[in-house]
Amino acid sequence: MKVHGLALVGFLIAVVSCKAIEECRENEPFTCGNTDQLSSKSFPEDFIFGVASAAYQACYKSTIFDVEGDKGRGLNVWDGFTHRYPEKGGSDHGNGDTTCDSYTRWQKDIDIMDELNATGYRFSFAWCSLTYMTISNHIIMVCRDQQFQKGKIGPVMITRWFLPFDETDASRDAADRMKEFFLGWFMEPLTKGRYPDIMREIVGSRLPNFTEAEAELVAGSYDFLGLNYYTTQYAQPKPNPVTWANHTAMMDPGAKLTYNNSRGENLGPLFVKDEKNGNAYYYPKGIYYVMDYFKNKYNNPLIYITENGFSTPGEETREEAVADSKRIDYLCSHLCFLRKVIREKGVNIKGYFAWALGDNYEFCKGFTVRFGLSYVNWTDLNDRNLKKSGKWYQSFINGTTKNPVKQDFRRPNFSFQNQKKKLADA
């Protein structure tokens, strides 16, 4: 009987441990090593797992390239912004003039995606590039032909951020232009042909009106929603009367955003350490709530997660930057809740694109942070290889434990003492 009892105890502990792995955790420690428990095989068969990049952040701006007749791209508003206000482009005065140069090293990036076994690539090109499309078209053709052995590609983004730069417009701060974009990019115009009531009430005459023809044209005009998700914040009341000397679009809602609750507690693990502006924290379950909200609010639209990622300090050594276990924690915890909301709520999510394919220029941060699943050597741009997070994502996509990460099976809610009665009853 004693031997039988010990065997029963061992079996029950194993069951509880496996169950704990299946559960999504809202805080550290996360269990990311066992991709047999959480992998692409846990998602619908047609679900796309890919990586993302963006035009200005990953490509040189130079207009002197002549690759197969491609003369490069024209200047855009971010070129003007970072050159006029270099300190706002990043504390290192970084900008898109020189970055990871996917423009000419596209084959290397495709090779990395092939190594990842990615089934999709979300990249973008700017409006000012539409007359210089040879390289972008070539990337699409190569991806289509190689198919990453899965036959998937997309979505390609034509981004609104990078409007052509007009010299007569140089005096306008790019932030003002972005403000106009943010005010004009909401879901209700796409679903109802008008701005939401609360927005029209707050913004008033500053908000343009749609004509009947425009409303009919825009309502229901989207094919899918591409949602970028990074962090969740608490919102606290903070009336913001309009004073044009310092008014920004973020003041219009009359709310203060914070990563701390009313008791001063952080909502989750550290996302970005910033002694000057305050630290940022992330909350993995936030992606669950956001996806559920869009399902219920907008009649379960087709959704792709077009960006989700984690930054590490740019001053780290190569060894430190490659050993990016925190990025693994971030990705796996969000993917766990993404799987959970699909299973429990039936949200129509069909793809996930990790940000980013490789280290690149980051808006307003320059090269002081790294977001890539692959490491880019800024002194030798041909030197770009998967970090540990990239190898973890590779294992996740493959559904194997080829690159296991050290696991921690401890759970604060599992106590052997608390299980005594259950074991005795069994």
**CATH homologous superfamily identity of the largest domain:** Glycosidases
Could you give the count of β-strands?
Answer: 15
Structural Rg: 24 Å
- Reported by name, the CATH topology of the largest domain is TIM Barrel
Low-pLDDT windows of residues: 1-21, 62-70, 147-152, 167-184, 402-426
Strand content: 5-15%
How many structural domains does the protein architecture include?
2
Structural class of the helices, strands and pairings?
Answer: alpha/beta
Put simply, the count of helices is 15
- The N- to C-terminal Cα distance equals 13 Å
Which architecture of the largest domain does the CATH hierarchy give at level 2?
Alpha-Beta Barrel
Please provide the ordered H/E string of secondary-structure elements: HEHHHHEEHEHHHHEEEEEHEEHHEEEEHH
| Mean pLDDT across all amino acids | 77
Q: How much helix is in the residues?
A: 25-40%
Largest sheet, described in full? 5 strands, parallel
3D structure, described in words:
- The chain has 426 residues and is an alpha/beta fold.
- The protein has 2 domains: 1-27 and 410-426, no CATH class; 30-185 and 224-232 and 267-407, TIM Barrel (Alpha-Beta Barrel), CATH 3.20.20.
- It is 35% helix and 14% strand.
- The chain contains 15 helices and 15 strands.
- The strands form 6 sheets. Strands 2-1-12-10-5 form a 5-stranded parallel β-sheet, with no helix packed on it. The protein has a two-stranded parallel sheet with strand order 3-4.
- Helix 11 (286-297) packs parallel to helix 13 and helix 13 packs parallel to helix 14 (388-398).
- The longest helix is centred in the first third of the chain and has 21 residues, at 2-22.
- Residues 1-21, 62-70, 147-152, 167-184 and 402-426 have low confidence and may be disordered.
